[in-house]
């Protein structure tokens, strides 16, 4: 039986779930700050074992992002991910002010587009929307040399 818990995702569980799907390693402090700055988290448990999670970030008025969606490999294709996405969408819809439109965005892994399209997302680019873009910012100088330290 799967139980979903809102806004209880802790740093250790977050890091373990990320590791289970071989995502990039984060520092403990990065993960802690990321969770603290999340608008909403949902975690799926199977007999007390965390098997999935989702996380929303954004401004809560104009745009939100599904930042993370993880289901451990041995629980994938069981419907947990779809349930988490539906709960994330429901949460963002609850934030939307009456008479307004909000954007709910995400960047999915290659090959996962159909999963998200089945939940109402539009793959980009389209005739009217350009492709999504990304930039990775990394430190190339020693922090003691930084003018911002």
Please give the structural blueprint:
Elements: E1 2-6, H1 11-20, H2 28-36, E2 40-46, E3 49-58, E4 63-71, H3 80-95, E5 103-106, H4 113-117
Parallel strand pairs: 4-5
Antiparallel strand pairs: 1-2, 2-3, 3-4
Characterise the protein shown here.
- The chain has 149 residues and is an alpha+beta fold.
- Helix content is 27%, strand content 23%.
- The protein is built from 4 helices and 5 strands; from the N terminus they run E-H-H-E-E-E-H-E-H.
- The chain has helices at 11-20, 28-36, 80-95, 113-117, and strands at 2-6, 40-46, 49-58, 63-71, 103-106.
- Strands 1-2-3-4-5 form a 5-stranded mixed beta sheet.
- Helix 1 packs across helix 2 (28-36).
- The longest helix has 16 residues, at 80-95.
Name a few traits of the molecule.
149 residues, alpha+beta, 5 strands
Query: How many angstroms does the end-to-end distance come to?
Result: 49 Å
Overall mean pLDDT: 91
Low-pLDDT parts are none
Number of E strands:
5
What can be said about the biggest beta sheet?
5 strands, mixed
Order of helices and strands: EHHEEEHEH
- Strand content range: 15-25%
Radius of gyration: 17 Å
Structural class: alpha+beta
3D shape: globular
Strand order of the largest sheet: 1-2-3-4-5
Question: What percent of residues adopt helix (DSSP H or I)?
Answer: 25-40%
Number of helices, counting only DSSP H or I runs of 4 residues or more: 4
């Amino acid at each position: 039986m799967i139980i979903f818990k809102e806004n209880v995702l802790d740093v250790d569980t977050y890091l373990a779930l990320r590791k289970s799907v071989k995502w990039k390693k984060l520092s403990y402090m990065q993960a802690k700050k990321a969770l603290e700055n999340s608008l909403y988290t949902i975690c799926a448990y199977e007999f007390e074992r965390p098997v999935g999670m989702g996380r929303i970030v954004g401004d809560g008025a104009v745009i939100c992002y599904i930042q993370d969606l993880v289901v451990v490999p041995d629980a994938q294709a069981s419907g947990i991910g779809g349930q988490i996405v539906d709960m994330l969408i429901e949460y963002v819809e609850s934030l939307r002010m009456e008479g307004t439109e909000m954007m709910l965005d995400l960047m999915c892994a290659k090959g996962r587009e159909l999963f998200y399209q089945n939940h109402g997302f539009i793959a980009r680019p389209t005739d009217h929307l350009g492709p999504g873009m990304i930039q990775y910012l990394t430190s190339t100088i020693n922090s003691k040399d930084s003018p911002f330290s």
